[in-house]
TrEMBL record:
<dbReference type="InterPro" id="IPR016039">
    <property type="entry name" value="Thiolase-like"/>
</dbReference>
<dbReference type="InterPro" id="IPR000794">
    <property type="entry name" value="Beta-ketoacyl_synthase"/>
</dbReference>
<dbReference type="InterPro" id="IPR014030">
    <property type="entry name" value="Ketoacyl_synth_N"/>
</dbReference>
<protein>
    <submittedName>
        <fullName>Beta-ketoacyl synthase chain length factor</fullName>
    </submittedName>
</protein>
<dbReference type="Pfam" id="PF00109">
    <property type="entry name" value="ketoacyl-synt"/>
</dbReference>
<keyword id="KW-0808">Transferase</keyword>
<feature type="domain" description="Beta-ketoacyl synthase-like N-terminal">
    <location>
        <begin position="47"/>
        <end position="219"/>
    </location>
</feature>
Amino acid sequence: MTKKTYINGVGCISTQKTFNTVFLEEAHVNHDNNVLAIVAPDYKEYISPAASRRMAKGVKNGIVASALAMKDAAAENVDAIITGTGLGCIEDSEKFLKSILDNKEEFLTPTSFIQSTHNTVGAQIALLQQCKGYNFTYVNGAVSFESALIDAKMQIEEDEVQSVLVGGVDENGDYTTALFKLNGRIKQDNHTPYDVLTSKTSGAVYGEGASFFVLENERKTNTYAELLDVYIINTLAENEVETEMKSFLKLNNLEVSDIDAVILGFDGNVDFENYYKNIAENTFAQTPVLYYKHLSGEYDTASAFAFWTASKILKIQEIPEIIKVNQISKPAYKTILLYNQLNGKNHSFTLLSK
């Protein structure tokens, strides 16, 4: 009998106030910025100021988000830490590359280089928690977080571990952001209002964040949801999404009518919005359709924010108005499907149930 995977603790640091507050109660939609910045927690509650000064933003946010998740799950320790990140600690990478240029490749200190590797976040969390178990970081574009989830789920099913800390972390760097604006990945400056659902322009509204989850093999009184399945596929045409999604549901003995809410990755990029629009308007025309990137912004591991949102909905059985695409509601929310892609690639389907 394979073990089931339960979400027993969540922690989220994002471009909204998603800590010390009721679920999305203090969230607001920003129409004026094309790049959203983190709402920072009080880091000194979690990290000594001396250590904090040397840490990248992503590392600090990861540490706080993982601490929140552990506290939420009432877990003293975990058997494994698995992180997903698209760009790693990009600010330190920028610093290092800049110092190579500024110093004409001489007299370099390796600090920024050491701190810029993608697995810095997982390593720092392990050091703080003294977790000497399996520690892995997936860098896999927009399915980095899902890759981490699949690994965690397999470890639990095979009884290799009983509890895993899984998270998705990305941060914004000024230089990288400027490049993304140049190549059209981020919406152009001074084109307000930046509305995600009604956008007529290409590029996305960008963000950053860190969301961590404690996954365990047993159900507890504070369990949020069960992670049923995760599926990733690199390339799909717009007209193939529905078929893939239905066969994914079928694998889990579900039909479209069994889904109580679907969370889609609308990010305001008109070039790829049809991936979501088609299924929102056809396949899921009778289902509550939700979105989240108008709150979190778009980044490689933004889907971890959606995972956090879904976990919360399943636990409190309510959907905040601010994330609704349509006005359909259900008497109870038992099964939620997440679908995300970025620029037509790296499609992921994730299923959670109460």
